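User: ok so my PI wants both of these folded by tonight, can you help

Assistant: No problem, let's get them done. Here's the first:
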Amino acid sequence: MSDTSDFRNGLIIKFKNGLYTITEFQHVKPGKGGAFVRTKLKNLQNGKVLDNTFRAGESVDVVRVERKKYQFLYRDGDQLVLMDNETYEQLNVQKDYFDGQDQFLKESEEVELLLDDDDNIITVEIPIFVQLEVKETEPGFKGDTATNVMKPATLETGAVINVPLFVNIGEVLKVDTRTGEYVERVKN
């Protein structure tokens, strides 16, 4: 068992019947009373963030996890087939682990799995930014770039996002996978 002195950003703990990662923590020693640790905890299953205060020295259940890099190969129904980069072993992962972000994955993209001691998947992390080509969108007209008007565009993975009017078919865009938003055009 560990205690609050072992806290660091990214540490995964078992808390309130769930797995949480510590995103922020601060040791506080008030002039009066005992010391405590203020934390922001992110639930690994649903992504919700909660604030919690621990007494200094309070014991916590730390979960040992392993991060492994996998390569995305293809979709198979409601599963995604991934390949271990070291052993070349293939693994089928339910679409639910991706929280809808799988729509931004193209073949051979690298993802990171968090696995517990029994090799059960805790969560899947895909790259924060990906570069995808525009396959279908309405043409933009000269002079329409003055306002922040957006139009839908279909990307090479089939994802549909809103892009500025000046974006055309064949251009490569940088997309934020957390929000599904257009970031910028990528220069070739």
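One down. Here's the second:
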Amino acid sequence: MDDPEIWRWIWMAVAATFFVGEMMTAGSFFLLPFAIGAVVATILAFLDVSITGQWIAFVTVSLASFLAMRPLARRLNQQGQVDGIGARRLVGASGTVLEQIGGEGKLGMARIDREEWRAQSATGESLSPGTLIHVVEVEGTRVIVSTAPPPPKPEN
């Protein structure tokens, strides 16, 4: 295992594994620093640096990259869900009931802006066609609606 030729390919496989692992896992840059360290070790292996030097570089670069990416990862994790993007843009929008929305989770149809959505009552009350509604929440492909006016959106 002291053959430098073998370590070139080991480091390359380790780097690829960490890169793929980073792309496949939900999270914020946990495996990427180790992939960067493995890439540096791969380059050093191709430059015929000793195996000890490769390991020192791998650990040092991985640790430095990890510490450098933590503030970014923390900031990305704090943002949470962004309102106003995709279907979430409908929260707070007004609309009209098109088809009866039954009580206790029975779906009906509502028009919000120019789109028709499957709708469910937030309070469980039955809503008849023509009733003015407001979107309280979006769950998958349906909107949860209420007849009460929407709460004011907080200013950013």
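The mean pLDDT is 85. Residues 4-79 form one domain. Good luck tonight!
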